[in-house]
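To: structure desk
From: M.T.
Subject: fold request, one chain
Message: Could you run this one when you get a chance? Sequence is below, nothing fancy, just the single chain.
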Amino acid sequence: MNKIAKSNGQSRPRAPHKRGAGRPSARKRIFDTASELFYRRGIRAVGVETIVAEADTTKMSLYRNFPSKDELVAEWLREHDTRFWEPWEAMASRYPNDPRRQISAAFALLAKHVADPKARGCPMANAAVEITEKDHPARKVIETHKAKLRSRLLQICIRIGVAEPRFLADQLFLLMEGAQVTTQTLGVHGPARNIARSAKMLIDMHLRALG
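Reply: Done. Structure tokens follow.
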């Protein structure tokens, strides 16, 4: 479920940044360029030199706007977190009294994302694999995001009325995480293509258990 710019992992020609009144600020160019590169190539594979070259700016400008590359990574993930929750809030507003429709809409959105051959999975999960230092500023962003997702699923499962809402929420969480990962290894025609159907069957199974 990601609105960050995506690619198939290969470099592609970038249009030169036009100079003039309509040109984005250096901060925006740096942020947008870094966001795309981090998602497409990975955090460790992208150095400051690459970012400033593709953003058509300088290291001095980057460090004037962001204290460090680590802080730039954290800011990228904070922005992803904000964008991630926008459709969830829209679904909650659209179906305020129907938690089943809310969760179905969430998994339909995820199904659409994992069917995109240019997608590279979840930026948070990808970053978690690369960033192992507990004091890295992005680590807290990742952990908070995933904890919120698990909590949000639990709230919906409680409202659905199953006997074991925490168990169902964990199953749905694992489905989401697994679908994002398997698209990177087995592609869009792998197990991830069944994500929405799998979620529905899990919920139906829990509801049947109520008798």
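Reply (cont.): DSSP finds nine helices and no strands in the chain. Let me know if you need anything else for the meeting.
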